[in-house]
Design brief:
Elements: E1 16-22, E2 26-33, E3 38-39, E4 45-48, H1 55-70, E5 78-82, E6 86-87, E7 92-93, H2 109-117, E8 124-128, H3 129-140, E9 149-154, E10 158-164, E11 167-170, E12 177-178, E13 181-182, H4 183-186, H5 189-200, H6 207-213, H7 218-242, E14 246-250, H8 257-269, E15 276-279, H9 284-293, H10 298-305
Parallel strand pairs: 1-5, 5-8, 9-14, 14-15
Antiparallel strand pairs: 1-2, 2-3, 2-4, 6-7, 9-10, 10-11, 12-13
Helix pairs in contact: 1-2, 3-9, 7-8
Length: 306
Amino acid sequence: MLTATTNYKPQTLNAIVIGADIGGSHITAAQVDLTAKQLIPASLKRLPVDSLAPTADVIHTWANAIKEAAQQTPFTQICLAIPGPFDYEKGICLIQDQEKYPMLYGLNVKELLATELNIAAEAIYLNNDAACFLQGEVFCGSLRGYEKAIGVTLGTGLGSAIFENGQARSADRWNMPLLKGMAEDYLSSRWFVKKYSAITGHSISGVRELTALAPANDWVNSLFDEFGHNLAAFVTRFIAETKSKAVVIGGNIAQAYPLFKNNLLAGVHSRFPEVLIAPSVLGEPAALIGAAGFRSPVQEIVQKDK
């Protein structure tokens, strides 16, 4: 699996790429040695991002994280895991009406970032963050060895991906009809924030605050129970459509997995008892190694290790 050792030395500089995971509230970047399948721990940088900020501010923050992670180490590519919708090949942002990165809509992010970093746009590779997450988990994490699987990332938004034929791709199930709306309405941090406000009349910034309240509040636990039930309905339909044999759950909300695990497993296994449901064991590094893996022979490397 992907490891992070304090005394790490790269086997070859040619194997080093910069991987970055861009979320709705942060960017995490690091050097990744693809040959050793190791994230270089001293290079790991995480910076907060105001996704509602002007374009120049967002691009500047992303570039700073990448520069700090690079630490003047020679590398051949920057590989970004970034939420959609996006024209990933051209680098054009298509995100709108999702309460994140509205100022980037219609812009060529690849060119903007390349200019900020003073590098060629061709050195930057973009792919869907959920697909990158699943790619990393199948190769190096909790779903290693599975040939057909799906991934679900739970955070500011809802990410989904399918792995088959040796590669992950975005599934774009965020707008799947669910209850009285679409899946992302019920399976994102926004749902928790709105439910908490409706119940208490107060506001919270996200799921982490609720997690801290859970041990002493039955109603908070009931909120996670409801979330687990909703997630089970979504995952069950996803499995039925894809015939997948395993599911990995990631994203910031997955840190509260024990609080919604029981309802999720009960709901899914009532119909698909043979399907593995597993939380991410790699966390953010899954997206980093997955993004890099799309442009490098990670699958070949993994097969040699078996």
